Amino acid sequence: MIKVGIIGAGRIGKVHITSIATRVKDAVVKSVADPFMNDETAAWAKAMGVEVVTKDYKEILADPEIAAVLICSSTDTHSPISVEAIKAGKHVFCEKPIDHDIEKIQQVIDALEGTNLKYQVGFNRRFDHNYEAVQRAVAEGKIGKPEIIKITSRDPEPPSIDYVKVSGGMFLDMTIHDFDMARFLAGCDAEEVYVQGANLVDPAIGEAGDVDTAVITMKMENGAIVVIDNSRRSAYGYDQRAEVFGSEGMVACENDSQSKAVLSNADGVTAEKPLFFFLERYMDAYGKEVSMFIDAIVNDKEAPLNVYDGLKPVLMGLAAKKSYEEHRPVKISEIM
Amino acid sequence: MIKVGIIGAGRIGKVHITSIATRVKDAVVKSVADPFMNDETAAWAKAMGVEVVTKDYKEILADPEIAAVLICSSTDTHSPISVEAIKAGKHVFCEKPIDHDIEKIQQVIDALEGTNLKYQVGFNRRFDHNYEAVQRAVAEGKIGKPEIIKITSRDPEPPSIDYVKVSGGMFLDMTIHDFDMARFLAGCDAEEVYVQGANLVDPAIGEAGDVDTAVITMKMENGAIVVIDNSRRSAYGYDQRAEVFGSEGMVACENDSQSKAVLSNADGVTAEKPLFFFLERYMDAYGKEVSMFIDAIVNDKEAPLNVYDGLKPVLMGLAAKKSYEEHRPVKISEIM
Amino acid sequence: MIKVGIIGAGRIGKVHITSIATRVKDAVVKSVADPFMNDETAAWAKAMGVEVVTKDYKEILADPEIAAVLICSSTDTHSPISVEAIKAGKHVFCEKPIDHDIEKIQQVIDALEGTNLKYQVGFNRRFDHNYEAVQRAVAEGKIGKPEIIKITSRDPEPPSIDYVKVSGGMFLDMTIHDFDMARFLAGCDAEEVYVQGANLVDPAIGEAGDVDTAVITMKMENGAIVVIDNSRRSAYGYDQRAEVFGSEGMVACENDSQSKAVLSNADGVTAEKPLFFFLERYMDAYGKEVSMFIDAIVNDKEAPLNVYDGLKPVLMGLAAKKSYEEHRPVKISEIM
Amino acid sequence: MIKVGIIGAGRIGKVHITSIATRVKDAVVKSVADPFMNDETAAWAKAMGVEVVTKDYKEILADPEIAAVLICSSTDTHSPISVEAIKAGKHVFCEKPIDHDIEKIQQVIDALEGTNLKYQVGFNRRFDHNYEAVQRAVAEGKIGKPEIIKITSRDPEPPSIDYVKVSGGMFLDMTIHDFDMARFLAGCDAEEVYVQGANLVDPAIGEAGDVDTAVITMKMENGAIVVIDNSRRSAYGYDQRAEVFGSEGMVACENDSQSKAVLSNADGVTAEKPLFFFLERYMDAYGKEVSMFIDAIVNDKEAPLNVYDGLKPVLMGLAAKKSYEEHRPVKISEIM
Question: With a cut of 0.90, is the ipTM above it?
Answer without folding.
Answer: yes
